[in-house]
Amino acid sequence: MLKRIIGVLLIICMCVGVFTGCGNKTPTQKKVVIATTFAAYDWARAIVGDTKNVEVKYLVDQVVDLHSYKPTAADIIEYKNADMVLSIGGESEEWLQDIDLPKEKVLSLMDTVNALKEECVEGMEAEEEEEAEDEGVEYDEHIWLSLKNASASCKEICSRLVSLNPKNKDTYRKNTEEYTKQLDELDGKYSDVVRQGKTKTILFGDRFPFRYMVNDYGLTYYAAFIGCSAETEASFETVAFLAKKVDELGLKYICVIGDNHEIANVVRDNTKTKDQQIVTFDSLQAVPNTDKKASYLTLMEQNLEALKTVLQ
């Protein structure tokens, strides 16, 4: 009789576990934070640290550009079940609006910084929609390429994490203080490199997502396309303009953000000396979550070395 009673109780416990698992989370379950970009993922990961009751996720497991990412059905379920979503908040994430998440669940990082309007500088090819007079103001999404923005965003992420999981508030605040100190130190190194540089102009034979970076340090830039452009071929006029600028300014380097150097090579071939070196920067837009060695700080340090090279 006793064995039968114990058996019935075990079955009841198992059923309760199944049903509660399909319902709302219990207070003891792990909270889930999902970031739509690698930078935000790494920031949140640094702030959470070794605490166990919050899991930070980044669902992009392959090299997919921010502007090309489309969530799978499985991704959408993850976003819906998450306790917090760290988004950039730009046009490239319109898919996030389609998921229709509660506003209080989403932190738009563009709202945590002074977002800059997209601009089309001299010689740059404008996209058709940018040439339309009835288009509204568009803001540059690449806020993470400013260390100052990174610091501001981290502080807001910390605040949201404290609200989500007050139990670990002291740890989150301590980790944020330590991490933003590292960001500030790296920011100081960028300032030193710019101050010591022989030139204050960089030229990209590519898209240009570094508007926030040049704005931070007072640099001038020229490029083939804006940062969010989907264009892959530059017009003769654009190539000729960039080649002429290289000659006028005596630039030794032409910059790119990826493995495709075609436009940069054509620009170089149209300069007088035809001997400029190609230098690659990382826009941090296509860092897969399988790259365990990558971090925001190390990638921005690599960009610092690239900047040091082109400004010398």
Descriptive notes:
The protein is of the alpha/beta class and 312 residues long. The protein folds into two domains: 31-113 and 142-195, 3-Layer(aba) Sandwich (Rossmann fold); 197-281, Nitrogenase molybdenum iron protein domain (Rossmann fold, 3-Layer(aba) Sandwich). 45% of the residues lie in helices and 13% in strands. It is built from eleven helices and eight strands. The protein has helices at 2-21, 38-48, 73-81, 94-99, 128-131, 147-164, 169-196, 211-217, 236-249, 262-269, 296-311, and strands at 31-35, 54-58, 84-87, 106-108, 201-208, 220-226, 253-256, 277-280. The strands form three sheets. A four-stranded parallel sheet has the order 2-1-3-4, sandwiched between helices. Strands 5-6 form a two-stranded parallel ribbon. It has a two-stranded parallel ribbon with strand order 7-8. Helix 2 (38-48) packs across helix 6. The longest helix is centred in the middle third of the chain and has 28 residues, at 169-196. It starts with a helix and ends with a helix. Residues 1-23 and 129-134 have low confidence and may be disordered.
